Amino acid sequence: MLDSLERTHAVESSLKWAANGHLPCVVWFTGLSGAGKTTLANALDQALFKMGAKSTVLDGDILRRDLTADLGFSDVDRIRNAQRVGQVASLMAEAGLISLVALVSPLEAARLAARQAVPAGLFLEVYVSTTLAVCEQRDVKGLYKQARKGGLAGFTGVDAPYEPPFDPDLRLDTGQMSVADCVNALLMLLATRGALPKAAATGLHVPVSAFTA
Fold first, then answer.
1. 13 a known binding residue?
2. Domains identified in the chain, total number
3. Residues 58-96: pLDDT tens digits?
4. How many CA atoms lie within 13 A of 184 on its CB side?
5. Catalytic residue among 105, 129, 178, 209
6. Hey, which of 75, 110, 116, 151 would disulfide with 146, CB 3.0 to 4.6 Å?
7. What whole-number distance in Å separates Cα of residue 31 and Cα of residue 172?
8. Beta strand spans in the chain (E)
9. Which 8-state DSSP code applies to residue 140?
10. Bridge partners of 123?
């Protein structure tokens, strides 16, 4: 029988981080539906795997089917959704992984709740700033069309607001930048935080546009 329900670790997190050869972090991709969050998270995951880094992707759409299936889309539920996902990402970071989260998270309060769930210094906010016009033109899932017809109430960008981050660590517009350039920018960001294996952190070239408002 367990004497305590407190989290204990047989192996300290710092030892796992050292064994990985890089620091962990949580990369939080926020932006409108169709902005390219999941595409960038998966592309970055592939690049990190090739570099020997330990990473995983948390896709908001998939998590909504299970982890947060009981939550709706009110402001309170959106905050709770981000908080839960942040807690999962935090556990993965403590285990030494680079956790790549793709979540619309339209409210500043929701992103703050996620940030507060993650150990200090490990949360990186990436604003995928692709415009509504481009996202709606893509409309891969047909959600914008459905929302415009009134069949999807509270859809972000149509009849629910998106609050852009005030000061993201990185801003990427997939309507203006290629996936390759975006991934390069992301890798440079991770390199500055020690989240890449040292051998892989050299020779990165990043377009200046990625770091400008």
1. no
2. 1
3. 999 999 999 999 999 999 999 999 999 999 999 999 999
4. 14
5. 105
6. 151
7. 10
8. 25-30, 55-59, 98-102, 123-128, 170-172
9. T
10. 26
